[in-house]
Amino acid sequence: MTSNNLTGKNVVIIGGTAGIGLAAAQAAAAAGAKVWVAGRSEAHIESAKQVANGSFEVRQADTHDAASLEAIFKEVGTVDHLISAAVGGERTLKPFLEQTEDQFKAAYDKLWGYAKVVRTGAPYLAEDGAITLVSGSPARKIRPAQSPLSCVGASVENLVRCLAVEMAPVRVNVVSPGTVDTAMFDWMGDEKQDKLAAMTASHLIKRAGTSEEVAQGILFVMQNGFVTGTTIDVDGGRILS
Ligand SMILES: NC(=O)c1ccc[n+]([C@@H]2O[C@H](COP(=O)([O-])OP(=O)(O)OC[C@H]3O[C@@H](n4cnc5c(N)ncnc54)[C@H](OP(=O)(O)O)[C@@H]3O)[C@@H](O)[C@H]2O)c1
Q: Which atom of ligand 1 is nearest to the CA of 209?
C-alpha cells in the first residue's frame, strides 16, 4: 500500500494563513488531518481563524524565527507532514545588473526560511513523515527581470532533492505553482484581475490558477507514499509557453 491516509495525521503548514498554504490546510483538514497553520501578521492570522472556523489551529510563527517554529512543533509532538508555503523574502523584479547586491540577496530569505523550517522541524518528524516545500515556475521558466524568483526557486527545488536523498525514508517534495491568484498580488489593487489576465495570456491555460488547484498538488505528494524528490508543476503550462 503506497498511499497515506491523512485521517488523524498531524500536519504543520508554515505560511498557511493565506493563499496556497491556507487552501492546503483546508484540504488536509477536510481529508481528516489535524492541522496547524502559521504565519506572521495578525491580519492573516485573524482571517485564517475565520476560514478555519475551528477545523484547524492557527498560530503565529516566522520562518526566520526558530523559537516561534519550535513552539508549534513542541505543541504538535509528532509531525507527520511538514509544509512550508511561506513567501519569506523580498524580491526585486528588475534585471540582475539593475539590482543592488542586497536586493538580490534578500530574495534568498525564502530559502533560508525554508531551511530553518526543515532544520527546526526535522527532530519532530515521524519516521514515515514527509516534507513539502513550494517553489515557483520561474525556477525553470526564465523571463527577464525574474532572476531573484528564478534563482531562489531553483535553489528550493535543489534543496528538496538533497533532502530527499539525505532524509529517506522521510519523503521530501516540492510543488511549483505558476501564476496563481493569491494575496501575493494584492499590491496590484483594482488592476489585479486585468494584470493577472495579461500575465497569463501566453500560457497554455490562459488564466491564473487558484490556491485550491495548487493545494491539490500538495495533497498529492503528501498522500502518495511512493513519491519523493519530485517537483510537481501546477502552472497552467507556464513553463512550456
Ligand atoms: N501566487 C503565485 O502566483 C505564486 C507563484 C509562484 C510561487 N509562489 C509561491 O507559493 C508560495 C505561497 O504563495 P501565495 O501566493 O500563497 O502567497 P500569499 O497568499 O501571500 O500567502 C503567503 C503565506 O505565507 C505567510 N508568510 C510569508 N512570509 C512568511 C514568513 N517569513 N514566515 C511565516 N509565514 C510567512 C503569509 O502570512 P504573513 O505575511 O502574515 O506572514 C501567508 O500566510 C510562496 O512560496 C510563493 O513564493 C506563488
A: 3
Please spell the DSSP secondary structure of 17-61, one letter per residue. SSHHHHHHHHHHHHTT-EEEEEES-HHHHHHHHHHHTTSSEEEE-
Q: Whose Cα sits closest to atom 32 in ligand 1?
A: 62
40 lines ligand 1 (CB under 6 A): yes
Q: What is the pTM of this model?
A: 0.97
Matching residue, cell 501578521 = 41
118 Cα: distance to centroid of ligand 1 (angstroms)? 17
For 44-55, how does the pLDDT look when each residue is reduced to its tens digit (9 = 90+)?
A: 999 999 999 999
Domain-by-domain residue ranges, the chain?
10-235
Over the stretch 83-117, which tens digit does the pLDDT of each residue have?
999 998 899 999 999 999 999 999 999 999 999 99
CATH class of the domain whose range is 10-235: alpha beta
Q: Is the CB of 146 under 6 A from ligand 1?
A: no
